[in-house]
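User: Continuing from earlier, I have the next pair ready.

Assistant: Great, send them over.

User: Here they are, in order.

Assistant: Folding the first of the pair now:
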Amino acid sequence: MSSPSREQFVEQLFKVVTKRFPLVKLAEGDEPFTVRVNGNLVGLENLYRMSILKPEDVTHSIERWVVELLRAAEGSPDRELAFDELKERILPMILPENSAAHDGVISESLVEGLRIGYAIDNDRTIAYIPQSHFANWGISVDDLHDTAIENLIRRSEQMSAHAAQDEDGKISLIIFQTMDGYDASRVLLPTLHEKLREHLGSPFCAGIPNRDILLCFRNDDETVARLRAQIKEDFKKMPHQVTDELLLVTADGIAVRE
């Protein structure tokens, strides 16, 4: 089955939503490749990328997308809760600097081109924390960051990874892909460098083309050349893009690799 064009995809989305969810108010958005769902502006890029990956599941993907949007709207009272009531569900999300996702939400700079956003994790959805809600909590951004990182550490304790070896048995690549929405964020784990440097050397490289994968690999010309093209390709094709730039993970923190 061939992938639909953007125009065909939008037509199909309207048909599926109108038939399956007749009470949902759906309208074209004010910005390119967006729609309004019950008045809320939503981008279609991630959903469209998923439809390209699995064109046979496009109807199911659209239906699940609408259900998750409706659940997120129903769960919006979370944003009115006190910090102590939500702090165990707050996690960091790495966002592109040019992403509309961080407009109006609390975030801070990570490196050039990337920011750290903060989200409330729900069973099936992720809701970014608005600046207005954060202001009501009376805490600092450092406090919020520390809480999010502590939760990420706890969530990652039992995480497994896939290691790739060369012909001599030397590990050149370690992949983290739990698909929980926070794989790219795990580049922020405080002990990542300490745990992986014995396998990958120091500093080592990291790739986070989308939010559902973290690739850590040796900072040598051969390995970088082999993986850079694949990371750029994944960035172009996969949903929930983060960056096609490579990062350096050092003992002192994270930097963009030239």
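And the other member of the pair:
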Amino acid sequence: MLEMRPDCERCGRDLPPSTADARICSFECTFCAECVDGALAGVCPNCGGGFEKRPARGEALLDRFPASTARKGPATRE
């Protein structure tokens, strides 16, 4: 099941489950559309893959299968 990470791994921007601005690669690396289209030039810095728009999860399903709360943005890196 898709983890639906809560933030951009590059800039830390919040990416709630309902946003249309989240992009993911095949490993679920998660970035905002602005970072993907700009600085990343459509290439994942972690795996070298491309990005797709992250699909939305319906509100009813979010109750049963909540999005992740584990942040991966720059403030959480060591």
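Worth noting for the second one:
Strands lie at 22-24, 30-32, 52-53. The chain has one domain: 1-59.
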